Amino acid sequence: MVGGLNWTILGVHFKVLLKRVMSLGLGNGKNVVFQSFNKMVILGSILFSVIAIYSSYLYMFPAIQPVFRNDEVKNSSLVGNGMIGDSRERGNFLSSECNVFNGKWVSDESYPLYNASECPFAERGFNCLANGRKDNRYLRWRWKPKNCNLPRFDVNVVLEKLRGKRIVFVGDSLSRTQWESMICTLMTGIEDKRSVYEVNGNKITKQIRYLRVRFSSFDFTVEFYRSVFLVQLGSVPKHSPKRVTSTLKLDRLDDINNEWIDSDILVFNSGHWWTPSKLFNMGCYFQVAGKMKLGLSIKDAFKKALATWGSWVEKKIDANRTQIFFRTFEATHWSGSRQTCKVTNQPWSKPRGKDWSPFSDIIMDTVRRLSVPVKLLHVTPMGAFRSDGHVGTYSDTPSVPDCSHWCLPGVPDTWNEILFAFILSQN
Ligand SMILES: *[C@@H]1O[C@H](CO)[C@@H](O)[C@H](O)[C@H]1NC(C)=O
Ligand SMILES: *[C@@H]1O[C@H](CO)[C@@H](O)[C@H](O)[C@H]1NC(C)=O
Ligand SMILES: *[C@@H]1O[C@H](CO)[C@@H](O)[C@H](O)[C@H]1NC(C)=O
Q1: According to the model, what pLDDT value does residue 95 have?
Q2: How far apart are CA 65 and CA 41, in angstroms?
Q3: For a substitution probing ligand 3, which of 313, 320, 427 has the most ligand atoms within 8 Å of its CB?
Q4: When comparing pLDDT for 302 and 78, which is higher?
Q5: What parts of the sequence cross the membrane (predicted)?
Q6: Position 336 confidence tier, pLDDT thresholds 50, 70, 90
Q7: For residue 360, is it left (φ>0), alpha (ψ between -120 and 50) or beta?
Q8: What is the domain range of residue 38?
């Protein structure tokens, strides 16, 4: 607070001085030499006072210095575990100056990375162009981190890196979107499209629990497990109030968790289902150690569920084998109390508060406390700008506008570009 105030005062002071200099310049020109000299003296003294004030400011508030270097990384322990920029790793993208999640979207005609109509794994609901969307600027944005660049996506390099591996996504429909995006992006490097297939011949649906797509020529699979809460759904204990029709066991990870363990790359998400409308209004309440916790808030329940996830990771995952990622809350662009959805043609120029989510904070806090390395895909800030990227009414159910899910190609492709960059940086 003190810092901000100080700068504001300094700014006003500077403006006043500058105005004086300018008004001097607008004189009648009789004494040009004197005026120039006068200007130089004034400019010099402004410069001197700025430097002096800045120096004394830094002297008085040394702890605030890092804010100027990188306003995203507020706690250096975030840098080492979770946030990228781990100093043990090398390269520009991974250097400590680079917080890949702090940046902006820049126009780039080389995007999109694929054509969803030519990808059998892009579900119709996310293929906005096929559903009648006419504007197409939303396809041509590249994420530019503030102090570095994302490595340019090279499909052949990534395919080779993934040879023989098992990639597993666990989470809700936003995870399914990233899974679809990954498959479509990688398929651009595959000549024989039939060599990529769902092993059980299953079709993508909103409810499907498990999908496994195999890239046979590179011998790797990209899998999706639907687990919207990550923890187990349970039955209702006896003597529960009538309104309780199902429960979430916050201390038990989803019962298919064993299937996630033996993987090389594991990507989690959760958040969008932790709302009263998807829980309490549906009669679903929380349970811990077999006991109903009717008064527990959704945020505290989410915290508890993530703690359960965290101890599972520590106990069950061999971090030497498996690279673990957790994607933070994917920004939504609902507006107003009536939850209307307006998809724009251009990204917002400001995040307007969408760059923060309590779910993301809980995720980051949980990850930071773990004894095993988990990389955060902190996609909340970058998504905040992308009011233009949602499916809106260009889905398979146009009567229900949607400002949660994203068009494909689109924003989830960037999540994968960042994921690939991390994977490639690993030996
Ligand atoms: C950063 O966070 C950790 C873990 O919460 C805490 O122990 C540490 O004191 C924090 N460091 C700073 C500089 O705030
Ligand atoms: C995508 O592919 C479809 C089918 O091949 C084609 O009709 C369409 O023009 C392509 N779209 C773009 C933007 O290239
Ligand atoms: C992982 O690797 C480290 C360093 O090589 C080793 O000390 C550790 O025991 C390994 N952990 C497991 C679970 O294999």
Answers
A1: 77
A2: 30
A3: 320
A4: 302
A5: 40-60
A6: confident
A7: alpha
A8: 2-69
CA of 115 to the centre of ligand 2 (A): 6
Read off the pLDDT of residues 196-245 as tens digits, 9 standing for 90 and up. Answer: 999 999 999 999 999 999 999 999 999 999 999 999 999 999 999 999 99
Tens of pLDDT, residue by residue over 30-53, are 444 445 666 666 777 777 776 666
Question: Does residue 306 share a domain with residue 419?
Answer: yes
Q: Determine the Cα–Cα distance for residues 333 and 392; give it in Å rounded to an integer.
A: 10
Query: Is 311 known to be catalytic?
Result: no
What is the average pLDDT across 161-188? 98
Instruction: Find where tokens 């899974």 sit.
Output: 179
The pLDDT of 325-343, averaged and rounded, is 90
297 shares a domain with 161:
yes
**Rounded Cα–Cα distance for residues 58 and 65 (Å):** 7
Nearest CA to ligand 2 atom 2: 117
Beta-carbon count within 10 A of 378 CB = 26
Which residue of the set 96, 173, 360, 387 is catalytic? 173
Q: What is the pLDDT of residue 94?
A: 73
Rounded Cα distance between 14 and 51, Å, is 12
Q: What confidence score (pLDDT) does residue 159 get?
A: 98
User: Does 405 participate in catalysis according to the annotation?
Assistant: yes
Whether residues 238 and 274 fall in one domain = yes
Residues sharing a CB contact under 8 Å with residue 318, sequence separation 6 or more, in sequence order = none
- Identify the residues whose C-beta falls under 6 Å from ligand 1: 75-77, 368
Is residue 263 flagged as an active site residue? no
The number of the ligand 3 atom at minimal distance from the alpha carbon of 318 is 13
| Ligand 3 residue neighbourhood (C-beta within 6 Å) | 318, 320
Residues 247 and 168 in one domain: yes
Same domain assignment for residues 9 and 144? no
Domain end, chosen from 69, 104, 119, is at 69
